[in-house]
Amino acid sequence: GFGFASKRTILYSNMISGYVKKCDLDSVCDVILQSLKRDGEDSSFSEETYCELVKVFIESQSIKSLAALIIEAHKLESSSTECDKSVGFGIVNACEKLGFSGKSILDEVDAQGGFGGVGVYVPILMAYCKENRTAEATQLVKEISSGSEVKLDVETYKALIEASMTKQDFESALTLFRDMRGMRVTDLKGSYLTIMTGLLENQRPELMAAFVEEVLEDPRVEVKSHDWNSIIHALCKAKRVEDGKRIFRRMVFLQYEANQQTYLSLINGYMSCDKYFEVVVLWKEFKDKKAKLDHALADAFLNALVRGGFFGTAMQVIEKCQEMKIFVDRWRYKAAFMETQKNLRLPKLRKKKMRKIEFLDAFKNWVGLTTGKSLKETNTRNFSSDVSCTFMASFGLKKI
């Protein structure tokens, strides 16, 4: 029973403690191996016991004997033995606790041509994480993966990836994730989100884009519109709107649904770079897709179009809002119009530009800035504070 097994473990631990005090290392090894020969019994020892025996082995400079103990113990351990219950884990973990290099023990195990199970690696990897030695941890994982007998558990991978992202060692995090995929780990979603979130927080959209492309067809990872939106937002925020536009095109090509956040990021990005005509193009695509317009999107489109001087397109947005019964604050756009029209005047216009003036006149009527005068009466008048900078520039306008 459970109680009997626990009592036997205590007995073994006491025996180990007695032999340690006598520096009888051979007897220590015999007790540990004997405990493993009893099938079905709980032979795991406490961290205190392992620290006690490891200390005497190290002080006696018996690293080879310690490595040999790990190898022999692993041969006797059941295949179902949990990683942190193995003798190899207990010994190497104690080494790290005592400030002795667990890697030295691992190297000696390798030198003897033996194998200590996955448990010998975990304490070393966790120690690397704690010391922010993520590159060394990643290198060790690659060495582990090259061997057919060892497979790290998901939690170890997650801890290593989190440590790498915390240190901003993105290369290690991505390498570890690739290793997870290669080892056929089924639970990838958590680590995928950890990497995406870290890259977004550290404003690395180019790495995010490459990462998404890399895992796009992996069924264990669910790439969603939100992921593409995060990349587009980060690029537009950094005024890399052409890259943002390219990612948007890729997103649409792969048939991910663009939503409010997608369009808001692009509009704000275009405005930050004074690329107002791109907003016109975006509105046409939005309209052709018959995407759902809401108040936030209508506001963003109108604000950009009014400031850019594209009043014909602005009137299309207004008509759509009226059709969908979306409230539009005329005073807001009147203020935006007036704000962008200071110290500008309109020279004599040629007939081919009359259509644009009609759009302008329609918009001014809508916000209450005109009294319905004919275009002939107004097309040569001074329109101080009437037309936006972009609209004026298209007519060769100059400041007063």
TrEMBL record:
Spans of repeat PPR: 224-258
Keywords: Repeat
PROSITE patterns membership: PPR (PS51375)
Gene3D superfamilies in UniProt: Tetratricopeptide repeat domain (1.25.40.10)
Family statement drawn from the similarity comment of this UniProt entry: Belongs to the PPR family. P subfamily.
NCBIfam families linked to this entry: PPR (TIGR00756)
Name of the protein this chain belongs to: Pentatricopeptide repeat-containing protein, mitochondrial
Species this chain originates from: Noccaea caerulescens
